[in-house]
């Protein structure tokens, strides 16, 4: 099964909106992510609904940040994309008759619940600005401090 990359892609877009382009159309973002503008509009709608970005239609319109990256946590973004399943493992059946399977499923559910709580706590402690800062440090080592990002197309 393929990975859900929506969160990583959304974070990518937010950092570009902050560091490289102040406003981008759905078409611009779609080219950057190599996807369809309809997918971008769906992805960005959750961010808009949570007050992270704003959109303007028409000529000169597009998506832009409404909040500073330092005030946006990974948990905010995770919630904005619809809180997808964090782990792709789980029970084999909804209501198993086998007592062994019931025991396995109960312990797995408990353990996965604890792991998800830890991950959400960690998401809440990381601001998108922290990721942008990491990008800047990586890029400075490669390009001597020039902020033009040659490593991706956006």
TrEMBL record:
Q: What domain of life does the UniProt record list for this protein's source? A: Bacteria
GO molecular function terms attached to this record: DNA-binding transcription factor activity
Question: Which residues are the signal sequence here?
Answer: none
SUPFAM superfamilies linked: Winged helix' DNA-binding domain (SSF46785)
Q: Which Pfam families match?
A: Rrf2
Its cellular-component GO annotations read: cytosol
Q: Which PANTHER family match?
A: HTH-TYPE TRANSCRIPTIONAL REGULATOR YWGB-RELATED (PTHR33221:SF15), WINGED HELIX-TURN-HELIX TRANSCRIPTIONAL REGULATOR, RRF2 FAMILY (PTHR33221)
Annotated protein name in UniProt: IclR helix-turn-helix domain protein
Native species: Pelagerythrobacter marensis
Which classification does the entry list for the species?
A: Bacteria, Pseudomonadati, Pseudomonadota, Alphaproteobacteria, Sphingomonadales
């Amino acid at each position: 099964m393929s990975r859900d990359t929506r969160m990583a892609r959304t974070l990518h877009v937010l950092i570009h909106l902050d560091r490289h382009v102040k406003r981008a159309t759905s078409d611009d973002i779609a080219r950057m992510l190599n996807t369809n503008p309809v997918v971008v509009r769906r992805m960005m709608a959750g961010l808009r609904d949570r007050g992270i970005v704003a959109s303007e239609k028409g000529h000169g319109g597009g998506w832009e940040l409404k909040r500073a990256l330092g005030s946006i946590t990974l948990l905010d973004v995770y919630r904005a994309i619809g809180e997808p399943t964090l782990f792709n493992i789980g029970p084999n059946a909804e209501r198993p008759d086998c007592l062994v399977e019931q025991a396995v499923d109960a312990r797995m559910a408990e353990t996965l619940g604890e792991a998800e709580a830890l991950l959400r706590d960690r998401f809440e402690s990381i601001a998108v600005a922290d990721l942008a800062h990491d990008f800047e440090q990586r890029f400075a080592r490669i390009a001597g401090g020039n902020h033009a990002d040659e490593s991706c197309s956006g």
